[in-house]
Amino acid sequence: DKRSSQPARVAVDKLLGGLLAPGFDEESCVSRYRSSLYRRISPHKPSSYLALKLRKYEDLHKRCGPHTESYNRTLEELSSGHVNGTTDCSYVVWTPANGLGNRIISMASSFLYAFLTNRVLLVDLGTDMAGVFCEPFPNTSWLLPMDFPLSNQFYGLRSGNDHSYGHLLWKNNMNVSTVSQPPPFLYLYLSYNYDDYDKLFYKDQNQGFLQNVPWLILKSDQYFAPYLFLIPSFQQELGRLFPDTETVFHHLVRYLFHPSNQAWGLITRFYHSYLATADQRIGLQVRVFNRKASPIKVVLEQILGCIQKEKLLPQVDEEKQIATSSKNRTSRAITIASLYPEYYESIKNMYWMKPTVNGDVIGVYQPSHEEFQQFGNNIHNIKAWAEINILSLSDVLVTSSWSTFGYVAQGLGGLKPWILYVPTGDRTTDLPCPRAMSMEPCFHFPPNYYKNTGSRRRLATASLAPHIRQCEDATSGIKLV
Ligand code: GDP
User: Fold this and answer.
1) At what angle are helices 100-116 and 378-392 packed, to 10 degrees?
2) Looking at residue 464, what is its pLDDT?
3) Which residue, among 205, 267, 243, 235, has the nearest Cα to 409 in the 3D structure?
């Protein structure tokens, strides 16, 4: 698996098998047509039906996008308070919640929902995600205009809001067929702590009413795409779009999220400085949610156990000072992504102090250690996004349990990761990092998850469809396989 220092591996298909539209200005977003030169070539081609429907969506977005005549007319329905049906444009407005990984998986799900329901997706990236992504759709914008009338209400949006669909269902005894006038907008609250009424969104019989509501303001931090596969009225179309259910996020994330030139600079400089000449690239993401509960020493032991048990890197030879010389030693570069420096320090030191048993040369790198998750800081988000992308360039990827940051890296890279179980308490576990079943993210809190009862029963949902299983890392969650 020797690689040249040039990133191009073979003649690369820059449109990713028809996933991307041609004709974008290349300079304004260099990564769009160039990331395929850096990543492993994906064996997963999008269906031609998906490519066709994406081009149709792009036309719709251009026709209904911000400040078009149709957009302005649909906006008037918001101020008049009446749906008069004069436009054929309707929208999903995505609003942010939680960290960057959570935001990306929920944006991807929101796009899929908009796509299935002939709506246009507009996103409120605020200031802290400014300059992170390129525009995904040609000759238009997905950014919600700053003067959007409801913007100042987004941040307080939570369960039970008077304008939420859950509230409307509750007020009408779960039966909205008696509501004579559809409202011009509704909130869909789909974040992890949504209540039983918000969850009614996922019932097929409640989808029809939404067709007449031009503005849906959606807040979620979840990858809810798997549940769309459980809604009968979407199933046929989803089957045509994604004959291979394991590739839903893989295609969506590479279609929608292109690093801005600033982020692409961080990614490619790191790549050329540390990774380009390695024979093998290994990404290790260490996400520790609670530093007190997961002591450094125990997490480190778990990481080393994972490397050894799954044979991801060679062991060090404690007996020798110098490796037996060999001409063709393999060089491996391991990139560690973590908020903290200690895991990197220890692993780097381990491979510096002793040779490897087989003479392999191991380079250990960490792009940043930000110490804590920051909100409202766009440079922090650009670094996080760069690191997600750097991880996605790996040949072998280890992610951390429950981390959406890791989910995005695996989806972009088309990689089935080893999932490191980050231990809480003072003991490591027997299976430190089992291999994931698929490269799809986990939907942590689907509507009918079991409350934490301590039991390890299978989810009822998991038997509802052949391509849906309980997640490896979250017993409450489901994922596509
Ligand atoms: P999750 O919490 O692991 O599911 O992932 P999120 O991305 O939703 O939230 C974690 C946030 O913490 C990230 O968006 C970053 O802001 C920060 N963060 C966590 N781990 C890392 C890391 O390895 N590198 C960087 N640069 N930031 C990180």
Assistant:
1) 80
2) 63
3) 267
Domains of the chain plus CATH, in order, are 41-256 (no CATH), 261-480 (3.40.50.11350)
Distance 469 CA to ligand 1 centre (A): 26
H or E element at residue 78: helix 69-80
Distance from Cα 214 to the centre of ligand 1, integer Å = 34
Cα 100 to middle of ligand 1, angstroms: 7
Tell me the per-residue pLDDT of 61-113, one tens digit each, with 9 for 90 and over: 999 999 999 999 999 999 899 898 777 899 999 999 999 999 999 999 999 99
* Distance, C-alpha 66 to centroid of its chain: 25
Structure tokens at 253: 């994330």
Beta carbon of 399 within 6 Å of any ligand 1 atom: no
Of 218, 79, 220, 58, the C-alpha closest to 147 is: 79
C-alpha closest to that of 123 among 139, 153, 103, 101:
103
Query: Which of 432, 7, 11, 16 is CA-nearest to residue 247?
Result: 16
pLDDT over 50 (residue 467): yes
Q: How far apart are CA 24 and CA 137, in angstroms?
A: 9
